[in-house]
Amino acid sequence: MTDWLALAKTHESDMFELIEQLVLIESPTSDKPANDHISSIAADLLRTLGAEVKVHPQKDFGDHITADWPATNPDSNAQHALIVGHLDTVWPHGTLERMGFYEEDGRLYGPGVLDMKAGIATTIIGLRTLKENGLWPDRPIKILFNTDEEVGSPSSSPLVEESAKGAEYALIMEPGQAGAGALKTQRKGLGEFHLSVEGKASHAGAFPERGASAIHELAHRIIELQAMNDWPNGITINTGLITGGSARNTIPAAAEAVIDVRVRTNEQAEILETKIRALKPSIEGTSLTITGSFHRPPMERTPELAELAGNLIDWSNDFGFELTEESTGGGSDANLTAAMGVPSADGLGSKGQNPHAEGENIEISEQVNRLALFMKAINSL
Ligand SMILES: [Zn+2]
Predict the structure, then answer these.
(1) Is the pLDDT score of 330 beyond 90?
(2) Class of domain 4-187+298-380 (CATH, top level)
């Protein structure tokens, strides 16, 4: 029987060294050379572990990388384990100098340490430790590290989906929910819709009967839309932006609204999209154009996903740490892997505070637990 926590402890200094090395390379999403640099460092480390590393060149972002290890037994037809992480951060250059990288009261502070350089380092050191100790699993393993997650993975989404195809399970090494560090087992799906109304301009005082107010029409549709909110069931609809009109005394010929829609299930997404697309104008002389879609599918808490999370929680308890699960309204690459039907455990990477905010940090003792958990998962699942 492997003592996973003890094994993790003997390799924690390697992990914290790599965390430091990665945090000291600032990698804001918008900086391609910086992200190319950090992705080439990660690629080199993965090659030393015997992976076949592919670089996926990008024009507007840093290059994404994938790393593959075949099944140890060539006759095996086991499905692969997928590990996903991102190398970019939300922090602009210069943040490191201002915020610093330091340890205080059992926590490690630095820009991007929590989201998610600790998760990247844990993945690499975890795999290395498994390899060195003869604990590598039979099944194939695939890693995807992208560089555009913080802006919604616009260029890497197809690669995330491709990598998830046929996977047995996916570990998304993002930080756990801020605070308790909980696994995120349910993520909302996210859609954006635009309502454009065309009306007819006219002098508001002299010839009101000749006009058709686009703003008046839009107001009706906004009320209709807002009424679709169903917070108890996880549906949130927000008309977040409106524009329209040309002058106080002119009946407005155009108006537009931008709507944020979030749902808990695919079924809700389908029903809502149908309802939104079916909106009809009620003010005579106006017409309505509806564009947009759901661009991030919901991550539903399927029985398979619940079982995967349950295993991780049980093992964490065995190691003497408390791990919980929560749902969140935000999205991540886990939405994409889960939508491919792959049970996805998101939030395994680290536990800490203040993601995307001043004082971003990870809890040092918990990071050793996360290393142990990651190794146990890859070895045993
Ligand atoms: Zn992240």
Answers:
(1) no
(2) alpha beta
